[in-house]
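hiii, so i know i said id send this last week but things got crazy w the move. better late than never?? heres the sequnce for the chain we talked about at the cafe, plus the structure i predicted for it. fair warning i was half asleep when i ran it
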Amino acid sequence: MAALSDGVRQFFDRDDWPVAETATGESTVFETVFAGSEQAWAVRVTAYDAFGQVIVESLLPLDVPSQRRRDLEALLLGVNWHLLTGAFQVDPSTAEIRFRNSLLLPDGELITDRLVKGLVYSNVLTVDRCWHGLLVVTEGAMDAQSAFEALAL
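okay and structure toks below
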């Protein structure tokens, strides 16, 4: 049986993504960058072989001024309500923004390229779709409600 980390590695190799890989005691972390339509950002995929779980996180390079945090949080709350998979998260102390989704394969189920591809691309394409709205709210160019309506989720 192939480990989840092997499946993730194979996906990145076959899809020709440059990846830095780090193995720890209970996980393997794959770090890369995705170039969206307006911005590039870091992506981290963590495979927990023993638990049958793969987590994908997009780490958004937004510096959110303290006076814009409430509007950004309001926008993300609305966006999250409409998403089918994954969620945006905001660290309350630093305002770091991430988008996270995950996959659980119980009972030793095998992972496939197609599963990893769906997981990774659903993550980065969701971020890419929402990027402009997050940016204009962060910069104060638009309020949360207007940005949410412009996203047309």
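btw DSSP finds four helices and six strands in the chain. thought thatd interest u
miss u guys!!
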